[in-house]
Amino acid sequence: MKESLGNLDRFFDALAGLSFWQRLFTWRTFRPRVFEAFKEYRALEETAASRAEEIQSLSSRLSLTANELDHARGLITSMGQELTVLRERDARRETEVQTSVSSLQAIRDQITAERVDERTAREEEARAQMERLRKTWREHEQNVRERIKLICQRHTMEYADVVPFRGSPDNTILLEEEYVVFDAKSPAGDDVRNFPTYLKSQAESARKYARQERVRRDIYFVVPSQTLSSLQTFVYNFEDHDVFIISIDALEPVLLTLQRIQEYEFAEQLSPEERDDIIRVIARFTHMTKRRIQVDQFFSRQFLDLLSQTETGLQPELLAKVREAERTLKLNPPQDQRTKLLTQDDLRQEEDRLLREAELRGVRPILPGEKEKETNKE
């Protein structure tokens, strides 16, 4: 294109330099050059038109590119805003996560501290319980002595402070010229598992009393009521004596039974009916004592299973609240008052009260006759 423009420029320069006469007489020589120049001009027009189309196309593409650029800029701006929002959201989530982790750690520390406190409380309660048991066992001998003396005073029995035979039994009752030995026995240590072995050994050595004159061959060992669940044998039969294991609560019925038997000068003087009555009373007492121990053992296992299910079945938060509420509770069973004798009338009045309360609550009480049937059936 530059070359074509050069030719035209030279043509117009040459035409402009001709004089009038040269134009008149030499014009024929310029006609080919005019045609060449016209061709070049047409080529220039076509080139210019093509370039104009290209320019128009480029302009359209430029406009489209500008629109796309504006759209891209809008997308970038929008994405930037979204990125800012996401970053702010991530920052909030990070803060929330840190707060949750801190709260979780605080809860974990609190639960750990509560479990430590609970374990410490259980250990302290166990130590306190064991100390109460030790105290009860240490005072058991004195409690048995006071209980027996009170029963003897109430029922006009003779308590022998000094015995005419060898040995020093804890308690001795004189019934119709015959001495009956009641020795108080309690566990020596914290573990009651060795208590049955200790009782058996002591029962064998009790022959030192039974072999002496005017000493009854039936020896009684009085044990704490809390130790009955650890025992399976309550009667030890030997060649020359028998040892019966009873609780401190059984002292009065046993002494009253012995007193009734000793009221007769000789056992042969008992009528068959009276002998059967005595045997029936002793057998029923023995059976009820064993059944009471068996029932207590059954419910102890059930309560232990229930406690285990509570420990494993409840959620930790709910279990913690249950334990917190448990700390506020306290069970106060009736105390054993040494100076006050628990009579049968008192027990019957309490039983009548409980029966009336059960009936008011829609609970059908079991009558004594029904109790006997259950006992005999078992």
Give the number of domains: 2
Oligomer: single chain
Average of per-residue pLDDT values: 78
Number of helices: 10
Give the low-confidence spans. Answer: 371-378
Biggest sheet details: 6 strands, mixed
Rg on CA atoms, Å: 58 Å
Gross morphology is rod-shaped
- Helix content percent band: 55-70%
Coarse structural class: alpha/beta
How many strands appear in the DSSP assignment?
A: 6
Span of the ends, CA to CA: 131 Å
Tell me the series of helices and strands, N- to C-terminal: HHHEEEHHEEEHHHHH
Strand content: 5-15%
Describe the structure.
The chain is an alpha/beta fold and 378 residues long. The protein has 2 domains: 2-75, no CATH class; 144-330 and 341-377, no CATH class. The protein contains 10 helices and 6 strands, in the order αααβββααβββααααα. It has helices at 2-16, 20-138, 140-154, 195-205, 207-210, 251-262, 272-313, 316-327, 344-360, 368-377; strands at residues 158-159, 171-175, 178-184, 218-223, 235-237, 242-247. A 6-stranded mixed beta sheet has the order 1-2-3-4-6-5, sandwiched between helices. The longest helix is centred in the first third of the chain and has 119 residues, at 20-138. It is rod-shaped and about 195 Å long.
Concise summary:
This protein folds into 2 domains: 2-75, no CATH class; 144-330 and 341-377, no CATH class. 10% of the residues are buried. It is an alpha/beta fold and 378 residues long.
Task: Give a quick set of tags describing it.
six-stranded mixed sheet, disordered C terminus, 10 helices, alpha/beta, single chain, 378 residues, 2 domains, 8% strand
